[in-house]
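Hello Y.,

Per our agreement to keep a running log of every chain we model this quarter, I'm adding this entry. I've kept the format consistent with earlier entries: sequence first, then predicted structure.
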Amino acid sequence: MSQVDKVERMVDVSVGKSAWRGNGMWLAGLAVIAYLPRILDAYGLNVCLELFSWIALTGAWAAFSGMTGYVSLGQAVFYGLGAYLAALLWQGAPLLVIVLAAGAAAAVLALLVGFPALRVRGPYFVILSFGISELVKYVVVAIEAALGSSGRLLIGTPAPEQMFYPLFALAAIATAINIWLARSRFGYGLKAISEDETAAATIGVPTLRYKLTAFALSSVIPAMVGVFAALRSTYFEPMQLFNPITSFTVVSMAIIGGSQRPIGPLLGACFITLLSELLWSHAPQLYMIIIGLLLVVFVLLVPGGLAGFGEKWIRRRK
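Predicted structure for the entry above:
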């Protein structure tokens, strides 16, 4: 065996060991998460459900806005739509059917409003996405008022332990979508739109089709999370579940985590969720002030977010 063959064999063995080590870490992590519902108390379980929800919402937002540069403030409308469908269909259809129906309805709504909305850019799209969210919210409020209802009580909802695995699955799917987009032809097309949409169209990227597809894709998971949000609260109230604070929180998490990196939404959601739990228990009056200051600091000093900062730190160590 030549020296080159020996080196190649050593490299193959090293890569194989690294792959096995990485897969082993992922499997160990999944095993720990799968066991959590058995050892956590009610408070810890609710924190996990909240964390999974925010990871899914932030990851879905980053799949469109983080890739294309079109900052959307409309996540609340898909989240609220899913919650509304849960309130309407609960005890009339199986949970799986409700979740799938919410995702399909959100995708249809995204395609309908996205076709005209995605023809404008920059701050115009930001304002338009927020306006659409508020419009749908007050349409739902008007419908409920016409029916003589200001809210709907959901009876017999699943226990938190039963919602743990579906929400974890949604968080994992949102993260996997971002990892796939970072490496796929479709994702490269979205990045080209973010860099220069006119140039992307010139070289043959179907910009409108790509934007519509990404927008619809990013709407499905928030609607599904909204279903579980309504079931967790056991009460649907339009002003609460169509709250624009949901959209602003998602944007803050994505920016702090690093929306242009697949792991960024996960880091941002974990950081803000755990920080909020700490602040609400010790300094609730300072919560929004600290979140606002963090947002300013990350935008000005750490534009790559936690993910970008971590990559630079690892590069320096190497």
